[in-house]
Amino acid sequence: MFISNAYAADVAAPAGGLAGLAQYLPLVIMLVALYFIMIRPQIKQQKEHKAMVDNLTKGDEVVVANGLMGRISKVGESVVHVELAQGVEVQVQRQSVSRVLPKGTLK
């Protein structure tokens, strides 16, 4: 009686194939940029760290993740023994070695 009927408006025909793909172009560009800015450098850094950890040898001067500096005295499969001072030796996981110092850095 008092309520009038509401009818749906005509729906426009869907856009062509190129117009539909064009709306996703900014998203694709952002994902590609994200890959080259963030993901690719992180993967490269992880590969370099793994290669450095795999090549640790006795006598290398290293910095451990918590900032301790010392000379490697023993190398195990997953653990290295780092001599911090004469008679002071700690065991650390290989992955916790953050970098190898040039020879002669530690006196």
Automatic annotation (TrEMBL):
Similarity annotation: Belongs to the YajC family.
Main subcellular location: membrane
Keyword check for Transmembrane helix: yes
Membrane topology: Single-pass membrane protein
Upper classification of the organism: Bacteria, Pseudomonadati, Pseudomonadota, Betaproteobacteria, Burkholderiales
Organism (species): Ideonella oryzae
Gene: yajC
Protein's name according to its UniProt entry: Sec translocon accessory complex subunit YajC
Chain ranges passing through the membrane: 12-37
Record key words, sorted: Cell membrane, Membrane, Protein transport, Translocation, Transmembrane, Transmembrane helix, Transport
Localisation per UniProt entry: Cell membrane
Keyword Ion transport: no
